[in-house]
Amino acid sequence: MTAAFKGANAGLGTELYRGAQACYTEINARGGIHGRMVSVIALDDGYEPTPCIRNTIDLIEKEQVFFLSNYVGTPTLTRALPVIKRYADHQVVLVGNFTGAQPQREEPFVDQVFNIRASYRQEMMALVERFWQLGARKFGVYYQIDAYGRSGTDGVARGLAMRGARIAAEATYKRGAKFDEDMTPAVKALRQAGVDVVLCTGAYQGCGAFVRSARDAGWPVPISNVSFVGCEAMLSLLVTHGKTSGRDYTQALINSQVVPSYDDASLPAVVEYRAMMDRHAPQVPEALRDGKYAPEPHSFRSFEGFVNAKVIVEALRRAGANPTRPSFRAALESLKNVDLGIGAPLTFGPERHQGLDSVYFTRVENGRWVPVTDWSAAVKA
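^ that's the sequence the OP posted. Answer follows.
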């Protein structure tokens, strides 16, 4: 695993790792898989492409990992994909990534990648559909200037094209932006264009900064983010700042998700996840810890990591007592209509390397992200 464990996006890799580790720790405590223990080698790439490439090579050549998993971010993974492709003869596959970008879902890379989550394209097209139903016609986009930002924006463009419309205005920010940065220029550009809604593709600090700047400017436009943003970390920043400014920055704020709510106790996987997170209190290795980041008890990110681990564990079980990389791949492709306990079955196959397609929507209520049940109320400031 290579991900962002330190810096402005430390919460992304940290929480994904913790969720997966909660599952693996439980499995190991029960005797492992066919008597074998699951061990995760995690490296920090700071959400930057060059370290991710270097880490990928080290994981395959130096560490000789059985498989790759839980990569974080589009700008990192898209640069690592050609490297992974170069090792095709090693039969190494990548399973479960915290990115919904298209490159790993298409040729020539999809053969070695098993995506578990829905894509950004699916998330954005679903958001366009919802806001269009509410009467929005002028869509603005705010995005990180890289492959990730472009991937989400492409989904917006496609969703609008299906309705004979186009993106009305765009604004961007640079990867690595901090919450205290002034995003007023981006706010002005979109506000002057008269957009009805702003769909964002970015990380929690840069997107949180935009929300803060928009509300400080008195602009109540609905703002939505995709699953990758790190919604709990963004919410924490907004709530903390709101205590100082006296403003509520959580109104008309929507977030799409690719796993259901981790508060939905009707789902068996949620009950398992919360119990294992509480019981094991997983932490990243000390060398990877960012002293400025405080881990969250539960989050969509760690729940996604947990779900990814459940898929991997099931495939390892099916691969047998003496698994090989080819048998692990075959086991993954044998997963059809698997009940993970999240209310939606997972299916892989030789021609299908994306397991789930569901998109969920959340809003903030009483300081927590909850499922959207009334869209009209959710988008009112």
